[in-house]
Each structure stands twice: as C-alpha cells, then as structure tokens.
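sry for the spam today, last one i promise. struct tokens for design, 450 residues
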C-alpha cells in the first residue's frame, strides 16, 4: 500500500507537475485551497502534505498557508508538512519551520530532491508512530522503580522482582555488564521491609583478595599485622538491611565457605574473633559471570550457588529486548538535553535507524553514554549518527541500516513461515506488537503467502 500525499497548490500546472513526478511512489490527492485541504486531511489522513503558502484568497501572501500549517500541526501532528512556495521572504521560511514544517523549498522544485526529502520525512513519521505505539503500551507494570520497559522479558523480570522483594530470601541477579543489575538490586531493597535500613555494596572484583575477608567480615584489633583497631565488616554494617555482593563470581573459594555458613546460620566471625556474631542482613548477589559454568569448572561452590539461586533473576541484554531501544533512547535524550537546555527535536531518521540497528554490546550503560555524548556534540535541532559516534561497519560493505534490514527481513520471513503466515502468532514469536509487525512488512515489502 502506497503512502498518501496531499498536494495543496492553487497553480494547476504546478500541482500537475508534482503529481506526475510522485505518482509512481505515492497515492496523490490535490487541493487548490485551504478549505478543500482540510476536508481531504480529515478524510484521508495523509502521511505528508506538500503545502504552498500562497493560497486563495491571497495567493501573493502567506497568511492562508501558514494558518493551515498551524492547523495541521495541531490537529494532525503525525503528518509531515513540506512547504513549497514561490514566496522567497526569509521571515516566512522561519515562521513555517517554527510552526512545525518538516522542510521548506522554493519554486522551481527539483523532483528528485523532493523525493529524497519525502522519503526521509515519511520514515521519521513511521518511527514516531512506532514510538508512540510503544509508549502507549507503557503501563504501571512496565515501570519498575525508575526502570522502563515494554518487552516481555523485562515485564516478567519486574514481576518476579516485585514478588522476591517481599521475602528475605537471598537473590542472585545475573546479566551482562551495563544491563542495570545494581539498579535492580536497589529496587528490590527499596520495595522490601528493609527499605529504611542500610544498603551496602561490596565490589568483590575490585578489592584485593588479601583484604576482601576483612572487608566482608571485619577484624579484631591485633588479629594481623596492621590491624591497629577493630573494623566492622560490610555484612555487619548492613544489619537489618541489604548487602549487595557485586561480581560474586570473583569471590575466592575460602570466602565462599564463610559466606555459605553465614547464609545457613545467620552468624559471622570477625578475623581474630572468638565469638559468633548474629547478623540479619539480606544478601543480593550480582554477577556477569556464567555461575553454572563456574560451578562445573570448580571455581564456584555448587552448594553456595543453590543457596543463592532461590529465585533467579536474569536481566536481558538490550539486543534481546529491541522494542525497548527507541523508548530508552527518547527517555535519555529528554533527560540529558534538560542539562543543557531542551533544544532538540529528537534524533534524525539516520540516527534512530543506527540506534535501533546497533547491537549495544555495552547495553543500557553504553546507550546512556552515547546519547549524553550526542547531546553535547550535536549542532542542529536533530542528533545525527556522527554525534553518537556511529560509523559504518568496516569490511562488511554494508551500512548498519542495510545489515539491520537484512536481519529483520530474515527474522520476519522465518516467523511467518513457522506460523503459516498468521500475523498474531508471528508477532508473538518475534516479541513485537501486531501493528509493529504490519509496519515492518510494509516497510520491507514482504509478500504474505496465502
């Protein structure tokens, strides 16, 4: 199905020229004045409008065209308006852009250039519609202590986390670096009965092994060379609260034994201490290591693994929940642009395409840093790929967009074939909404077998 384009032009020769040049790509309708244009916009909801500012009853001015532009921007904000006019006054161009026009062209018009502009405008409109649909799917269950998601794996993670927060069981959070594991740990603590008690983090991978035992369990004065005073360990400091053991996979085996004893008995012994000390602290273990693999290799105790893994929580990588990518990108640009003033309209079509097509090996943390960089580096109203430090993939001969399109087409065709071209089941299999799948099918001109 072709996108609908409305040409609002009182000069019949110009209207015919535009219609002839674009009819092979779009479904074209023509209105010679504002009144007819309003009726066609209401009836057809065109994807884009090519608008002449000089309309009857004042074809030499711009009042009628600018008024219609304002109406379209107010009543049909998803419609992209490209102004085409013989009026060369600069103030009209400035007004048109400020009133919401996507672009501004003076006559005579280069049809090939106009096709490129239209293609970009319609692609941006499609992205905005897709983002609007996704945002419409955001409900209370898709917002979790400042974390936002619509993808099913994350919604299920939020629900599991809400349930486990009501208990005192140990928690094991696994996932790649940058996925938000520590933030999830904070959310679980905040939703628990321990929310107003200490929240202590221990980075097991950053503390030297010879100091880690003292850091966790504490020591008595004189228990070893340099122990000039008693030190309370992090577990004890978390009394009645929660302690996060970050990168638990790096914990040495001898300390794994002591941690297991604490989990079983609820007591610790400081280095050099003679009496057990009762400690009520909930343990939240966090790791990006494959703990099952570490157990098989003998680097992690199996009994400790099962003690921690009562309710396993896995934070999926960003590439495993692609529907969340545009939502997070929009959230971050709005957040970071406030720091220097909200001067951005958003991402350019090429930038959003690069964002959606990228695999994000650094996950949400990488996205945050790239968009923060883009907000700083951007010079125009839209953030472009170079502002985000996106480059073409070297050696492949393909752009990110081409690689992403090929992957999308392959995945969609396979899902459709698996489900006998049933759109609902294929969309469920792909973990996207039905409207999104329909948009992708139209975008890639995929033929549905009957």
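last one done:
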């Amino acid at each position: 199905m072709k996108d609908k384009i409305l040409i609002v032009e009182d000069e019949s020769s110009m209207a015919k020229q535009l219609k002839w040049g674009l009819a092979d790509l779009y479904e074209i309708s023509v209105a010679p004045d504002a009144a007819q244009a309003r009726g066609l916009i209401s009836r057809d909801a065109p994807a884009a409008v090519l608008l002449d500012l000089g309309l009857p009853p004042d074809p030499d001015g711009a009042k009628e065209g600018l008024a219609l532009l304002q109406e379209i921007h107010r009543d049909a904000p998803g419609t992209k308006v490209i102004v085409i006019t013989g009026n060369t006054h600069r103030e009209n161009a400035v007004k048109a852009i400020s009133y919401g026009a996507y672009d501004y062209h003076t006559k005579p018009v280069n049809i090939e250039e106009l096709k490129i502009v239209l293609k970009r405008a319609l692609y941006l409109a499609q992205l905005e519609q897709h983002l609007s649909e996704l945002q419409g799917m955001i409900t209370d269950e898709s917002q979790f202590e400042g974390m936002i998601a619509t993808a099913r794996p994350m919604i299920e993670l939020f629900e599991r986390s809400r349930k486990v927060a009501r208990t005192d069981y140990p928690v094991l959070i696994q996932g790649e670096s940058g996925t938000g594991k520590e933030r999830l740990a904070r959310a679980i603590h905040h939703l628990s009965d321990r929310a107003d008690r200490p929240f202590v983090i221990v980075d097991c991978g950053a503390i030297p092994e010879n100091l880690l035992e003292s850091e966790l369990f504490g020591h008595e004065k004189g228990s070893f060379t340099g122990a000039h005073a008693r030190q309370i360990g992090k577990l004890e400091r978390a009394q009645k609260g929660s302690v996060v053991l970050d990168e638990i996979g790096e914990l040495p085996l001898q300390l794994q034994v002591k941690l297991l004893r604490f989990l079983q008995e609820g007591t610790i012994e400081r280095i050099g201490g003679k009496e057990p000390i009762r400690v009520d602290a909930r343990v939240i273990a966090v790791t990006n290591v494959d703990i099952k693999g570490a157990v098989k290799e003998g680097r992690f105790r199996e009994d400790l693994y099962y003690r921690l893994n009562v309710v396993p929580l896995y934070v999926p990588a960003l590439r495993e929940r692609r529907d969340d990518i545009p939502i997070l990108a929009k959230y971050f640009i709005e957040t970071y642009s406030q720091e220097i003033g909200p001067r951005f309209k958003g991402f350019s079509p090429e930038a959003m395409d690069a964002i959606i097509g990228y695999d994000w090996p650094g996950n949400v943390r990488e996205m945050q840093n790239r968009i923060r960089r883009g907000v700083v580096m951007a010079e125009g109203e839209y953030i472009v790929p170079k502002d985000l430090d996106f480059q073409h993939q070297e050696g492949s001969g393909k752009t990110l967009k081409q690689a992403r399109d090929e992957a999308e087409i392959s995945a969609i065709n396979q899902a459709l074939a698996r489900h006998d071209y049933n759109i609902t089941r294929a969309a469920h299999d792909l973990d996207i909404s039905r409207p999104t799948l329909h948009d992708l099918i139209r975008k890639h001109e995929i033929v549905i077998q009957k």
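The two ends are 17 Å apart (CA to CA). ok im logging off now
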